[in-house]
């Protein structure tokens, strides 16, 4: 006979497991834990020193091989989902043109820390966590950004927010 407490327990496990499965892969943690030991400590340095974009394909500067093919062959021992995240992560860094490094790093440590600790994302817009200012408007007169660079920086910062691990509040 099924008991209500047993059924409730099974339901909790199913929901709990589903939440864990939905957790996004944090590309920063993935790089730092799986790549930085052999490659540059910072993914941005590796993206520019070891890789290049040929059209829309990220390739190794030395080998000329697509990064995705290299990773799929077993380099880094990443799962297919991790490979997809890593290739997108490094491609996005290349496409940003190191804008954060050139314009923001003088005052802010890195984009990940700034975004994840200093900003909030609400209705697809970034706001200052403590000021409540809309960051798109704020950046128009901040950080020596050119008008065309504001959209790039917003994408960089949003990417940091969207790839952040979800806090585990189950304890």
UniProtKB/TrEMBL annotation:
Q: Which residues form the signal peptide?
A: 1-21
Keywords per UniProt: Signal
Query: Is Signal there in the keyword field?
Result: yes
UniProt keyword Signal present: yes
Top-rank taxon, per record: Bacteria
What is the name listed in the Swiss-Prot or TrEMBL entry for this protein?
Cytochrome c domain-containing protein
């Amino acid at each position: 006979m099924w008991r209500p407490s047993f059924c409730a327990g099974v339901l909790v496990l199913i929901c709990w497991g589903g939440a864990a499965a939905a957790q996004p892969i944090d590309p920063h943690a993935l790089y730092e834990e799986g790549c930085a030991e052999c490659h540059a400590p910072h993914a941005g340095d590796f993206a520019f020193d070891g890789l290049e974009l040929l059209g829309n394909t990220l390739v190794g500067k030395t080998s000329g091989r697509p990064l995705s093919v290299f990773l799929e062959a077993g380099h880094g021992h990443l799962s297919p989902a991790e490979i997809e995240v890593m290739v997108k992560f490094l491609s996005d860094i290349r496409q940003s043109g190191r804008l954060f490094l050139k314009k923001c790093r003088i005052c802010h440590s890195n984009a990940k820390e700034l975004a994840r600790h200093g900003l909030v994302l609400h209705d697809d817009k970034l706001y200052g966590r403590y000021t409540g200012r809309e960051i798109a408007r704020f950046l128009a007169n901040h950080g020596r950004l050119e008008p065309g660079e504001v959209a790039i920086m917003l994408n960089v910062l949003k990417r940091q927010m969207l790839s952040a691990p979800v806090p585990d509040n189950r304890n």
